[in-house]
């Protein structure tokens, strides 16, 4: 007499086996919110950008190439270093003390974890960038006075939104490089000299590939008037392509290399 078949246990639902994106994002947001160095980087972004824009607002405006929108948002040039630092440190913190192993134990799908990390970087970077750009524009306009009277509402809105998007893209660019190199110091050692030295030295060379450098292209959106091969949004598109390349390289590194 055959025994009754042993009932098979019901398969574990996919949703039970695979964490949803929202809990992963919440966990990554908690990490960023509780790391003082990351919050300090966002505060430095606001402080540096508004301070340098305020100084630009009281500078000489007699230059025939004077551009009131760029002058008002010129504090982005030093302020972007803080945005880059924020993105790089947010990712590089995972490579210290076995942090990445713990993160992947909670979210085994590496692509999903990395997407949550990047989202947790992008959202506060964008919020901080928009607030910073608006504050920089207001303080600089107060100093420029009549020199900024020609700026339209549309141009100012484009400058503020474009500035916020640009700073977010640079933070994500740094995050992707930090994931690829598994080092925040390595990412900063590449990006900061590239922006402060290489871009400054060759950025004014007319034509060629210099217009398509990530910072030069993205900062076209900060100008009231512009010429050259790129406009405000196409320039941001070029910066977005640089960022996408860095993010994809970082995702490859996360997937292929040991935690």
Give an overview in words.
- By secondary structure, this protein is mainly alpha-helical.
- The protein is 71% helix and 0% strand.
- The chain is built from eleven helices and no strands.
- The longest helix is centred in the middle third of the chain and has 35 residues, at 110-144.
- The N and C termini lie far apart (53 Å).
- Mean pLDDT is 86; it is low at 1-18.
SSE order and pairing:
Layout: H1 14-17, H2 21-34, H3 36-57, H4 68-72, H5 76-92, H6 99-106, H7 110-144, H8 153-181, H9 184-202, H10 214-218, H11 232-256
Helix pairs in contact: 2-7, 3-5, 3-7, 5-7, 5-8, 5-9, 7-8, 8-9, 8-11
The largest sheet, given as strand count, sense and whether it forms a barrel, is: none
Low-pLDDT regions: 1-18
- Morphology: elongated
Mean pLDDT, all residues:
86
Q: What is the CA-CA span between the terminal residues? A: 53 Å
Number of strands: 0
- Approximately how much helix is present in the residues? over 70%
Order of SSEs, N→C?
HHHHHHHHHHH
Structural class per helix/strand content?
A: mainly alpha
Oligomer: single chain
DSSP strand content: under 5%
Number of helical elements: 11
Cα Rg: 22 Å
């Amino acid at each position: 007499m055959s025994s009754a078949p042993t009932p098979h246990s019901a398969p574990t639902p996919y949703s039970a086996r695979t964490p949803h994106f929202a809990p992963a994002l919440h966990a990554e947001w908690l990490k960023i919110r509780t790391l003082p160095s990351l919050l300090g980087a966002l505060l430095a972004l606001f402080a540096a950008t508004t301070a340098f824009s305020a100084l630009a607002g009281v500078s000489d405006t007699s230059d025939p190439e004077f551009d009131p929108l760029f002058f008002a948002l010129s504090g982005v040039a030093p302020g972007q270093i803080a945005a880059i630092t924020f993105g790089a440190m947010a990712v590089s913190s995972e490579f210290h003390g076995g942090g990445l192993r713990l993160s992947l134990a909670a979210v085994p799908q590496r692509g999903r974890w990395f997407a949550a990390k990047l989202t947790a970087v992008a959202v506060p970077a964008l919020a901080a960038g928009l607030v910073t750009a608006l504050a920089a524009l207001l303080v600089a306009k107060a100093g420029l006075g009549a020199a900024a009277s020609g700026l339209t509402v549309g141009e100012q809105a484009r400058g503020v939104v474009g500035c916020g998007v640009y700073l977010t893209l640079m933070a994500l660019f740094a995050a992707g490089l930090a994931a690829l190199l598994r080092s925040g110091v390595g990412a900063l050692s590449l990006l900061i000299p590239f922006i402060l030295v290489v871009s400054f030295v060759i950025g004014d060379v007319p034509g060629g590939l210099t217009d398509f450098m990530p910072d030069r292209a993205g900062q076209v959106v900060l100008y009231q008037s512009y010429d050259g091969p790129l406009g405000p949004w196409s320039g941001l598109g070029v910066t977005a392509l640089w960022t996408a390349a860095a993010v994809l390289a970082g995702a490859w590194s996360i997937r292929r290399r040991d935690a």
